[in-house]
Design a protein that fits this description.
Blueprint: E1 2-8, H1 9-19, H2 32-47, E2 52-56, H3 64-68, H4 81-96, E3 100-102, H5 109-120, E4 125-131, E5 145-152, E6 156-160, H6 162-169, H7 176-183, H8 198-208, H9 217-221, H10 223-233, H11 255-265, H12 268-273, E7 301-304, H13 311-314, E8 319-322, H14 325-334, E9 343-345, H15 346-353, H16 362-370, H17 377-394, H18 398-418, E10 420-422, H19 424-449, H20 457-467, H21 482-487, H22 493-518, E11 524-525, E12 528-530, E13 540-542, E14 557-558, E15 563-570, H23 573-582, H24 585-592, H25 597-606, H26 615-629, H27 634-641, H28 645-658, H29 660-676, E16 678-680, E17 686-688, H30 697-733, E18 740-746, E19 749-755, H31 759-772, E20 782-787, E21 794-795
């Protein structure tokens, strides 16, 4: 059977424009999207055999959908001139590939693709539709019409046939129109049925078969709206385009013609790929020709590659460009030189543009973004600065970079320089106590189960499940994870001893020993605050980690003589953010009325008055609140709370019934991730989710959980960072740098060391700054606790 290849050119070039860097031709014209389209076509047309081929484009005029619904695509920003010029040029690009293009006023590219597919599917051909979105899935017809979509950037593709559509969405291809009508389409501004997300839509269609047969009060209430949505999402299949198969014959790549064309645009890597027989991947997020190594003409900058800088330059108004500038700030500070802003740290810029990587070393940035070796470090820094400056602007990340990440550098430098004082006597005493307890536990465990390596899961499993014959609860491969062992604890006393040993060994190896070995001679412990470890933007404390110190060990962190430790903690910050971004009125009212949100949640899901909520109920409500933020499923909720899986499902369902906008918002976020390949918070900070289309339920569920958590957790991180910057600014302005010190950032809280004589004046001012630093839909609240050591801080 011969193959017809239909290309939704408009969707692909939009995808390439947003996925690839904004590099330009030798003549200075934008060309990143053209590169992506050309690279993908070159890859596909050389790797697969197509007998016929055609492409479809949108027209600039209004479509019949705009006439039906004025708000259609109204939320989409106007296409930038850089994209429009490349769309126009893409006609020529397709012509060089030997591909005929079609368009029709009043209709969109996917209508044209649908009409061509409908016309030719009765012929003896297999039809493959290449597109950048999933609207075309309604056209899938067994194995005669399949849809090829992009999985990652413009490099990886996947094929949707009947089984793949059913596997991902839970409905058949012919039900996709009804499915989209129920769910709506945020990217096209098509309203669906409020409260009906993908899972509910799939269940309704599985039960009733079609939209018209669905029996649901919610759907009936919005019948007119959903009917309009159905008309909007239905692709036209009857356009007369005057096409016949003989006019669409693909005669192979005219490589000489393409070589000349690619050379004119400066696509050196595409020229190099012509003539080669090997299969090569197209670029994913960033392209090979993204950076040439030349820097833009920039005035008033100072490139720092070793910190050796004159005081006059360091304290000037020039932009200081370098790698890991926090270390440079500390180095110069030791030489009594202040590095004045503005700053441009290429490491943080690269991470902000795409935080999905694990390696943000200088060499990794050069390899990843410059795509070639640059032996001169200053030249490489200049090239990275040039590229990252453009990319930050294109992605709308300038505010986050310039107002949050860069001003934070000197703040973190000062925190790392100050460190936190350790009570040596407490440390020594606690270490001795825990060592004795561990030795005793090890002796008791060995008496019961014989000698084995307690830190080896394999040896432990052998001792427990083979030697002692403990029933693994039906598991063929029993686990030695703590949560699983807890379920078996009643079977043998050794399990309780092992769990206790693990807790104490963790205290010893993770906290006490690192503190002892890393503490400086002056008794202070100096952690490193890493800005580029977490994709959400959270600060990570390293060497040692001081953000997860157990309560019983906080006593070893103390204030200097005539100073007090002051802990300012935001009250339920992530839930306040969730209430604000989701727009859930009931949740917002709770914060305005100063209600206990965990108690309210418990009252809602148990259907009891607030005054009847017990402490156990509240505990479950708290787990439910934070579980929802992190996308927790019923299985994890059941394991954490001890309720059955069925009860967990009911609690979660009841939660979303009581706070309906939370579920709707989460579905909107997941759709945004699928449509655009990323999720952004209110400040524009983004995280990429290019693998959302993976046909793997487990990986897709993980990506969805991360996507719905990102706007909340990343805004949490931004608010904490902004608070640190503003408080540090106040300290400088009031000349309190020798009396007020920021010590630690611990997710929702900040720890300070303040001289006693100004405690009553400084603490309320800091709290006021923290509460006013960011305007949400609900008020921010922070509490103050003070004490001589971190554990014994009490309400101020």
């Amino acid at each position: 059977m011969k193959t017809l290849f239909l290309i939704d050119a408009n969707a692909l070039i939009h995808r390439a424009y947003h996925a690839l860097p904004p590099f330009t031709t030798p003549q200075g014209k934008p060309s990143g999207a053209l590169y992506g389209l050309g690279s993908l076509l070159l890859k596909l047309l050389r790797e697969q055999k197509f007998d016929y081929i055609a492409a479809a484009f949108d027209r600039p005029e209004k479509t019949f959908r705009d006439e039906m619904f004025e708000e259609y695509k109204a939320t989409r920003p106007a296409a930038p001139n850089e994209l429009i010029s490349q769309i126009k040029e893409s006609y020529q690009l397709l012509e060089k590939f030997g591909i005929r293009s079609f368009e029709m006023a009043g209709f969109e590219a996917d209508d044209i693709v649908a009409s061509l597919a409908e016309k030719f599917k009765s012929e003896d051909v297999k039809i493959i539709i290449l597109t950048g979105d999933l609207d075309a899935l309604q056209l899938v017809d067994k194995d005669r019409v399949v849809v090829m979509t992009l999985k990652k950037g413009v490099s990886e593709t996947m094929i949707y046939d009947d089984k793949a559509v059913l596997g991902r969405f839970g409905v058949r291809p012919e039900q996709m129109i009804d499915y989209k009508a129920l769910v709506g389409d945020q990217s096209d501004n098509i309203p669906g049925v409020p409260g009906v997300g993908p899972k509910t839509a799939a269940k309704l269609l599985q039960e009733f078969g079609s939209l018209e047969k669905v029996k649901s009060d919610k759907v009936s209430e919005y019948r007119k709206q959903v009917s309009l949505a159905k008309q909007l999402v239905t692709l036209k299949r009857d356009l007369d385009l005057g096409a016949d198969l003989n006019g669409l014959i693909f005669r192979g790549l005219a490589e000489d013609k393409l070589k000349t064309y690619f050379s004119e645009f400066g696509f050196k890597s595409l020229v190099a790929r012509l003539g080669k027989n090997k299969k090569e991947d197209a670029p994913s997020l960033f392209a090979e020709d993204s950076v040439t190594g030349e820097t833009d003409a920039v005035e008033d900058v100072a490139f720092l590659d070793n910190g050796s800088l004159k005081k006059s330059v360091a304290e000037s108004e020039k932009t200081k460009i370098g790698f890991e500038l926090k270390e440079t700030i500390k180095l110069l500070h030791r030489k009594k030189i202040e590095l004045h802003p503005p700053f441009f740290d290429v490491k943080i810029a690269g991470w902000l543009i795409d935080s999905s990587g694990n390696d943000f070393s200088f060499e990794a940035l050069v390899r990843r973004f410059l795509k070639r070796e640059l032996k001169d470090r200053k030249e490489a820094i200049g090239a990275l600065h040039s590229f990252f400056s453009r990319k930050l602007k294109e992605y709308g990340l300038e505010k986050v970079f310039e107002e949050i990440e860069m001003p934070l550098l000197p703040v973190l430098a000062r925190m790392e320089e100050r460190g936190i004082l350790i009570n040596r006597k407490f440390l020594k005493k606690k270490s001795g106590e825990i060592k004795k307890k561990i030795d005793k536990l090890v002796s008791e465990i060995y008496k019961l189960g014989g000698v084995f390596n307690l830190n080896s899961p394999k040896q432990m499993a052998e001792a427990l499940f083979h030697k002692l014959k403990i029933d693994p609860g039906g598991r063929s491969k029993p686990s030695t994870e703590a949560w699983y062992l807890e379920t078996l604890s009643s079977q043998h006393p050794i399990i309780g001893l092992i769990l206790e040993y693990r807790e104490l060994f963790k205290l010893k190896s993770t906290y006490l020993e690192p503190v002892e070995s890393l503490m400086d001679k002056d008794g202070r412990l100096r952690t490193n605050f890493n800005q580029t470890r977490a994709s959400t933007g959270r600060l990570i404390s390293e060497n040692p980690n001081l953000q997860n110190i157990p309560e019983e060990l906080r006593e070893m962190f103390v204030a200097e003589d005539d100073h007090i430790l002051v802990d300012l903690d935001y009250s339920q910050l992530e839930l306040r953010i969730l209430a604000s971004v989701s727009g859930d009125e009931k949740m917002q009212e709770a914060f305005f009325d100063n209600l206990d949100i965990h108690k309210l949640t418990a009252a809602q899901v148990y259907n009891v008055p607030l005054e009847k909520v017990t402490s156990e109920m509240r505990k479950l409500g708290k787990t439910l609140n934070f579980g929802v933020v992190y996308g927790m499923g019923a299985r994890a909720f059941a394991r954490q709370t001890g309720v059955s899986f069925e009860e967990a499902e009911k609690f979660i369902e009841e939660y979303f019934n009581d706070f309906p906008r939370v579920r709707e918002w989460q579905e909107e976020i997941k759709q945004q991730a699928r449509t655009f390949g990323y999720v952004a918070n209110l400040n524009g900070r983004r995280r990429w989710f290019l693998g959302m289309a993976l046909n793997n339920p487990r990986l897709q569920a993980e990506a969805e959980r991360a996507a719905i958590n990102m706007p909340v957790q990343s805004l949490n991180a931004d608010i904490i960072k902004l608070a640190m910057i503003e408080v540090s600014r106040m300290i400088e302005e009031k000349r309190l740098s020798k009396k007020v010190y920021v010590l630690l950032s611990i997710h929702d809280e900040l720890l300070f060391e303040i001289k006693e004589d100004i405690l009553n004046e400084a603490a309320p001012v800091i709290r006021d700054l923290m509460e006013k630093i960011y305007k949400l839909q609900v008020p921010l609240k922070a509490g103050i606790k003070t004490g001589r050591n971190w554990r014994e801080t009490k309400a101020f």
